[in-house]
UniProtKB/TrEMBL annotation:
GO terms for molecular function: zinc ion binding. Belongs to the PPR family. PCMP-H subfamily. This is DYW domain-containing protein. It comes from Quercus lobata (Valley oak). Residues 14-89 form the DYW domain.
Length: 90
């Protein structure tokens, strides 16, 4: 439910998915759906529902964070007023 709510917030704030980074041969809507469920977004949704408001959310990835997830993280941080720290392998 929180992931759906996050996607609603993003659209309300003018977010446009960066579908050009999806390398699979899919239609535009399928590319958007693929981006909606990246593990970073799932981790943010879990962090938002499992911590107190105002708590910093820390996410560590063992792979590179895609450009779309980077943009989404900044926007969700702004929308929720929370500090979100995301670190990848580099």
């Amino acid at each position: 439910m929180m992931l759906l709510e996050i996607n609603g917030w993003l659209k309300a704030h003018g977010y446009i998915p960066q579908t050009e980074i999806v390398s699979h041969d899919l239609g535009e809507r399928q590319k958007e759906q693929s981006l909606e469920v990246h593990s970073e977004k799932l981790a943010m949704a879990f962090g938002l529902i499992s911590t107190q408001p105002g708590t910093t959310i820390k996410i560590v990835r063992n792979l590179r964070v895609c450009l779309d997830c980077h943009a989404v993280t900044k926007l969700i941080s702004k929308i929720t007023g929370r500090k979100i720290v995301m670190r990848d392998c580099i």
